[in-house]
Fold this sequence. Notes:
Layout: E1 6-11, H1 23-26, H2 31-45, E2 48-53, H3 57-69, E3 74-78, H4 87-95, E4 100-104, E5 126-129, H5 134-145
Parallel strand pairs: 1-2, 1-3, 3-4, 4-5
Helix pairs in contact: 2-5, 3-4
Amino acid sequence: MSDKPLVMVLNGPNLNLLGTREPDIYGTETLDDIAGRLEDEARELGVAVDLRQSNHEGHLVDWLHEAASVEARAVILNAAAYTHTSVALRDAVAAISVPVIEVHLSNPHARERFRHRSHISPVARGVIAGLGAEGYSLALRAAATL
């Protein structure tokens, strides 16, 4: 394990399809592209990143609990569709003392009405939305300073 502060980057359902899934909304970068860029940026910022993706809500809950147990500096969370549906993820974020930064590639408020409500935002430290993959970089810079 690294002696650098850890920032966990957790990604929810369908984000494994980035690069091919609705590129007009989500862009053409893959999750691997984003991970590679974040690893480079993390080295410059003096932190370590652990990037994970799951299509299963329970995995994300477990990883949030793990972030607390390993004393991560912060979590960057793109809960994807679970943002709008998961009280379990909301409760997991609220239950840990690790700051969580919510990230969305698109701007949910500029999309369908059902995407306008986030269960995560009220318990997140901050929210970055609508800036594409750059949102992850901005969140990592913020996380490195927390």
